[in-house]
Amino acid sequence: MTRLVRVELLKLRTMRVSYGLLAAAVALTALFASLEASGAGRTIPPVSTAAGLGDVTTTGGVAMILAAVLGVIVTSGEFRHTSATLTYLATPDRRRVLEAKAAATALVGACYGLAAGIVATVVGLAFVAGDGDHVTLGAAPLVGHVAGAGAGAALLGAVGVGIGSLIRAQLAGVIGVFVWCMVIESILGSSINAIRPYLPYTAATTLGGAKLGAAAFGPGYSASSQAALPFLGAAALVAAVAIAISLLAERTTVRHDIT
Amino acid sequence: MATLELDQLTKHFGPVVAVDQVSFSVEQGSIVGFLGPNGAGKTTTLRMLLGLVTPTSGTATINGRPYRELPQPRHVVGAVLEASNPYPGRSARDHLRIEALAGNAPRSRVDEVLDLVDLTEAAGRRVGQYSLGMRQRLGLATALLCDPEILILDEPANGLDPEGVHWLRRLLRQLAAEGRTVLVSSHILAEVAQTVDSVVIMDHGRLVTQSTLDQLTERATQVIRVRTPRPEHLAAMLVENGATAHIVGPDRLEVTGASGELIGTLAAEAAIPIFETTTEAADLEDVFLQLTGNPAHQEVAR
Do residues B273 and B228 touch, judged by C-beta distance below 8 A? Predict the structure, then answer.
């Protein structure tokens, strides 16, 4: 299994899209964190407060979405480019291939999340320093936000692998991820508060310390005082979603003939 | 012992019968042409053999085991299949590094196989920029990476220029000389006739024949042209003996279904002078076309 994961990591290292999505994750996080920080004192508390700084350092949600997109691309791309034949000739056990892809994409997704978390933290601290204030948020929560962003992106990367295996159509899969995270969860979360903590993208963002709804887009954006799932609960939920989608794929599309 | 064994292999795609109860075997160390027109079911058969397509019924084994059960399949079988391209944004060298790692081959093999297929200079270029012929060479390099004892090549000459086809023939001969078993598919008999020991011919999803090239040649309808002053008399005697004879001139006959010995013996018995006989050489391509039927129906199976 270790060799298979190394194979999938080597594939990811030799795909330009891996680096492109990482660059996009870093750039967009920097943008969102800067926008959030520039609204300090109006839309969020001042960055001189722990709550305000926390709002800025937890803006890495876009990296999680892009990790899921990467997962979709690495699996559906095998069928789009017909390289699945070569993959399955080398490793006929398709379930092991799926597991290795999920593990490798989770590792790379974690890098996306960590990078985004670090960028958001740097932006937040830069705004604090720019205002001449002291940092009121301790090192432990700051590190926790970064690590949580890594965990959330890793798990959503694995979810993306499942989606890409299940759908196989790359464009549909990528659009589906964006629509789910940016539109459907925003609508569902803002209209049915009770289910908000259990929505997978929302749960992943709470791993990175974001308040419920704070990572939502458009009209759904509303930092809620409602309690998020505890860290382990949220992690277990997103992992369960990844496993469920992957199992469904493994029992259906992954078994299809490679013609 | 048979290295490759297909037994009653069948595949249905919905209502279409792509492969219909195909059985044949390939002996260790032989080089076999797998022939049939486009759509005969060759690719589907090979993909079932390689575990990529699940048969509707029947079995396909390699060294007595299904491909999926081989412990290190790439070390046993190297395959080049149509519609199996590396990721286009990756360089050929990176692609081979991945395949070497996946197949558990030493990394040094990457340079060896690149050299073998004359792609060393282009190894750093992205595969998406390769011509079809270069991609075929890269496919062969991938197949040879783990130094397998068996090679399964699906239309490997597609996209190769005449020089490339010549290179491929030399490579296949070299591989056969090394004692490897090779199953090479083609829809053009001439492409493989100079290389293979025997042929398996499919058409419309069914096995038409498995034979040596010599046996195939013998199946060709031989025409013997005879020059004699009494063609009507000789023609009548030949027809009585089960042959077919057509008078094509005042002193000429065209005979099928009779050997030169029979014609000579009958002529001698009736004291019919024979001035000249010529045997038209059998054309393998004609036999192939006769065996594979009507091209108009060749799109039925994949």
Answer: yes
